[in-house]
Specification:
The chain has about 375 residues and is an alpha/beta fold. It contains 12 helices and 13 strands. The protein folds into 2 domains: about 200 residues, Glycogen Phosphorylase B (Rossmann fold, 3-Layer(aba) Sandwich), CATH 3.40.50.2000; about 140 residues, Rossmann fold (3-Layer(aba) Sandwich), CATH 3.40.50.2000.
Amino acid sequence: MVKLRKLVLIEPFCFIPIDSGGKNRIYYTVKELSKRYELLVVCFYDDTDNRELTRTYLESRNIKCIFLKKNNRKNILSYLANRIPYWFSEWAGIRIPSNIFSGVDKVIVEFTQLMWVRNFVPKNIPVDFIAHDVSTITFWRRLWQSSNFLKFAINYFRFFEVYLFEKRYFKLFDRVVAVSKHDKDKISNIFNVKDCIVVENGIDQIRFIKRQLPGEILKIGYIGSSSHPPNRVAIDYLVNKIGRCLKQRGINFQIILVGHNETIKDSNLEIIDHVDDLIEFYKKIGLLVAPIFSGSGTRIKIIESLSYGVSVLTTEVGAEGIGIQSSSLRIVRQGEVLKAESWVREILACYSQNFDQGLKNELKKYLWSSLFEKIDF
């Protein structure tokens, strides 16, 4: 029997249940890497995480795991004390046990908030960093959503912390893995990173469902937790701007949201906290509408919706890094994104058209099994 190399995978949160794009990526990273390595997964957790679900999942697959407790709250002085930005201060000042790295051949760190972990890995062990986004770009875009000058000033200071943090740490990793060519180019140009490759976000399988035919009720879907700021802004715009415009035009509609949400209420909104199989969600809707204005990286929800045969309407930011040209992936252009009437016009056009069946072959390159075959970690 061939002895597998030992790899440590370090994650900022528990990933079971899979209720976000980030957790989805972690799940498939663990699944694919465990086929090739003797894997140790290190997860940070807080009081809201049910770490036993993640532990049960990993141990049932003979994958070793360790859990480290996060801080209870963010610290506005974190950058001064630890050189870790305010936004990532829940992970600041935590020591990584040195015995984790004993006899290890390789370490992979995921997500920007854990870049500092590089300080604890012995210099003789190669360390890859998987950049789920470029946080400098994410927080720059979020900066311009500030509601007043004071918030703009505070957010600018916090953006600058993130920029300095990434500038310091990107160059310390042996290799950086971006989730799109767009992100790879930004990382290389902004931070002068030489060894940067691309492994896109992906899908588990392609299973086009029988698309709901247009009926009396227009059924629009969105997937994402409102605890994540880009999702929160998108859900608010979908319900309160696009939804209001649909009502004013006398259109009978329903918005179906999958993901944790406690803030937005509306008579036309159905909230599903969690589904065991996403196919049940996609069977309910005729169109995924994703008014995403900030963040970076690639959105798994976009590719995922297409893999079920459900068309998508989104922004240029929402489609960023996704190399698909199709009538079933429609984009509201930059000059129109804040006009609810433009969204309603595109929704009606998308909803009535047939899904592009030719996408099936193009989507094969996004299968997780294919993506991880491209690279030897």
